[in-house]
Amino acid sequence: MIDMLPGIDCTTSALTAERIRLDVISQNIANANTTRNIDGKPYQRQQVTFETALRRQETGDGGGALTHTVKVAHVENDQRPPVLVYNPAHPDADHAGMVAMPAINLSEEMADLIVASRVFEANLAVVKNSRSMTIQTLSIGKRS
Amino acid sequence: MNPLSAIRHVDAAALQPLRAPKPALEARAAQTIPLEELEKVALEFNLNPVAKPELAASPFANTLAQMVNEVGAKQSAASNAVNGLLSGQSVPLHQAMIAMEEASVSFQLMVEVRNRLLDSYQELMRMQV
Fold first, then answer.
1. How many structural domains comprise chain A?
2. Residue of B nearest to A141 (CA)
3. What residues make up the domain containing B116?
4. ipTM more than 0.85?
């Protein structure tokens, strides 16, 4: 394949990874008050870890360059214990009237959200620059 | 079919304005290279690359055909990505956009190459003998 947009492989993988991170953050925010997960316990906050994936970029002569792309390694449960809140009217309250709420700090999630969207934006800027570099290169030698 | 056939159509119409008007040909020349034409060319060369003896004789034509193939591949990759996105398969938005961008930029590259070829051809035709 012709490599029309330089560096686009890494950027695509980073965008995909950031999208997944955004998914996980939105899941955390949405479940901030979920007291009963599938296993009956309160929702556990999740976080993603990224890892490098090597991808061989084929060049025409059979050789290839290794590009370091990003992929999501794991989506892991945060091990923080649930927060106990006194609310005897809650259906999930124990005999002492305490409800185990997920240990999700909304401001922490919002900060993560900002980071994810900024990183996404940075990668989009790479795409934009890469495109304009290619377009400008195509105009080499244009008369008029 | 020759990879330059589309170019030839355009060229023939452009170079001979004094001929009796052929509306069909002129309508074609008004467009840039039509997509179906490109796809036909790409398909043809994929299927039987050996069946064209005059191509084996001219490596540059091969190179051109390969480029047209590549551009066709990018176009179809882009349309696959968009189809996947619109039909609700899990194709991320940015992937579809990037595929489209790549297709458009490589198409521009092809048009640029065609323009240069045409320019040099016209330069030759203007040569004093």
1. 1
2. B116
3. 59-126
4. no
